[in-house]
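Researcher: I'd like a structural prediction for the single chain below. Treat it as a standalone chain; there are no partners to consider.
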Amino acid sequence: MAQKKHKEWFNGDLAQLLAHKISEVYPQFNRQGLVTDIEESVAQLELKARLSCFSDRLNNYLPNSYPQAIEILVSILGTENPNETGIMSQYYWTLPMATFVEEYGLEHYAESIDAIAEITKRSTGEFAIRPYLRSEPDKTLEIMQQWSLDDNFHLRRLASEGTRTRLPWATKLTFLIKNPQPALPILNNLQDDPIRFVQKSVANHINDILKDNYDMGMNLIHHWLQDASTARKWIIKHALRYQVKDGNPEAIEIR
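Model: Treating it as a single chain, here is the predicted structure.
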C-alpha cells in the first residue's frame, strides 16, 4: 500500500476533527460550514497551500477578534507532547493553527508569541515564528534566547530551528544570512543540550551557517571543540557531514 502523502493528511477528515474540538469550547462554531468549505477547496492543493486554506477558513469561521480566536485554538491543544517528534506526528493537526498565527497574528504580537510557544510544546512553531523574526527581529530573538534555556525541549529546539536561515519548506531569513551573529547566543546556549531532537536542530543550523558564512561557522565549531562534551561532539560531527561529503579537508580533519 502506498504511503499517504503529507498533504493528504490535511483534508475533510482533519476539518471534522478540528471542527469537533473547536465546537467543544466554542459551541456556536459552524462545524459543517468549515468541513464543507475545506472539502470543496483543498483537493487540488499542495501541502503549504492546504495549510493556508485551513488557516483562511478558520479565520472565516472563528470570531473576528484575533485574541478571542487564538484563545479558542490554544484551548483545544490538549496535553503537551513528551516525545521527540517533529512536524508529521500525532500532533500534525496543530499545523493549520500554527499557520493561522503565521498569517493573521502579526498585529497581536504578545498573544501570537504565547500561542506559538504552546503549539510548539505539541508540534512546532518553526514556520509561524518567522514573520515575527522579520517584523520584530531584536524582540523576537530575545524571546527565543529565553526559550533556548527553557525546561521544555520543544521550545529549546524551536529557538534553534526557528532561526535557521535555510529552514526547509520556509522562506529564507535574509537578515541572518547577511549576519548570523544575532543567533549565535541561542546556539551557544544549546551546545551541550542533552536531547538528540535539539542537537539535530543545532547541527542543521550550523550547517546552514556554513553555506553562507563559512568562516563564522567554522570559528564557532573550533571554539566549541575546546573541552567539548559528548553532546557537542555529536553536534559538530553532524553539522559537518555535508562538508565532509564534499571533501572539505578542514571538516574532514575535525570530524
